[in-house]
Amino acid sequence: MTTVPHSHPMSAPPVRVLAISNQKGGVGKTTTAINLGTALAAAGERVMILDLDPQGNASTGLGVGPEARPLTMFDVLMRQSSVLQAAVQTNVPNLSIVPANSDLVSLESDLMGDAGRPYKLRDALAEMAADQSRLLDGRPFNYVLIDCPPSLSLLTLNAMTAAHAVLVPIQCEFFALEGMSQLKETVDQIKATLNPKLEIQGVVLTMHDQRTAFSREIADSVRAYFGSKVYETVIPRNIRVAEAPSHGQPILIYDHACIGSKAYIQLASELIAREKQLRAA
Q1: How many angstroms separate the CA atoms of 122 and 157, rounded?
Q2: In the prediction, which pLDDT does 136 show?
């Protein structure tokens, strides 16, 4: 895989924090976090994934088993560890993850009386940004991708309060349309109360079956609703993508030549181009 040469860290853009979120389950959030993160890393970006789901599927899908998680997102959110201390280097060059486990389930009750509880992740990432200059190899992280749980819990609230923008995977099936306005309301609400800079960075159509007219109709409806926010790249339904996590590998390593791999590489290119436009604006 070719990597893009990097300029000196001092001239690198500040880290971009993207929450991968949708209140609906089974839409491909974790799959997108793992594979988009891998594709960005393959393009020479330095990427950190934060696993905010108590099931820890992003951690497992990147080959970080329960025994390899001495520190987790729970420790970070309880301010018992920094992001960089808890990060685990994956088998993918340029890609690290802060893993998760079921400890996250108790976070809501553990922080019950804490007035600053929506800001725990934002503060931890601000600290990480300040620590970037002390990284041993001098290469700062360019992207932080947050894999959110499928609910509007304190975890998702922390993710959206800490993020610059939200990346929304939407499955090409009927019930996806029902959740769109709810999702937009949530983003607007957090923007109005906790994070005035929050935007929808983009919408990714997942599990698309181009053989069915129905899948195409859903894609058209999502594009009509979100307009240019919807990425041109569509993630197809692909059995290889579904198999890869059980092997602890992103699809780009499990089967580099399959259509799912190619789609995520294309999505990463499109995201990088979109981010460059945003910086130039």
Answers
A1: 10
A2: 55
Q: In this predicted model, what pLDDT tens digit does every residue of 66-103 receive, in sequence order?
A: 999 999 999 999 999 999 999 999 999 999 999 999 99
Look-up of token digits 């300040």: 130
> Scanning the structure block, which residue is given the tokens 């960089």?
84
Are 73 and 100 in contact, with CB atoms under 8 Å apart? yes
Let me know: does 171 contact 28? Beta carbons within 8 Å. yes
Q: Distance from CA of residue 151 to its chain's centroid?
A: 15
Q: Where are the domains of the chain?
A: 12-280
Q: Partners of 199 in the beta sheet? A: 165
pLDDT at position 180: 81
Per-residue pLDDT tens digits for 242-262: 888 889 899 888 888 899 889
**CATH H superfamily, domain 12-280:** P-loop containing nucleotide triphosphate hydrolases (3.40.50.300)
230-236, strands of its sheet edge to edge: 88-89, 95-98, 47-51, 143-147, 16-20, 165-171, 199-208, 230-236
Q: Rounded to 5 degrees, what angle do the CA atoms 35, 220, 207 make?
A: 30
| Mean per-residue pLDDT, 112-129 | 95
pLDDT in tens, 43-52: 999 999 999 9
Shortest CA distance to 147 belongs to which of 158, 138, 136, 131?
A: 158
Residues forming beta bridges with residue 50, ordered by sequence position:
98, 146
Reading the block at residue 46, the tokens are 């330095």
What pLDDT, on the 0 to 100 scale, is given for residue 135?
60
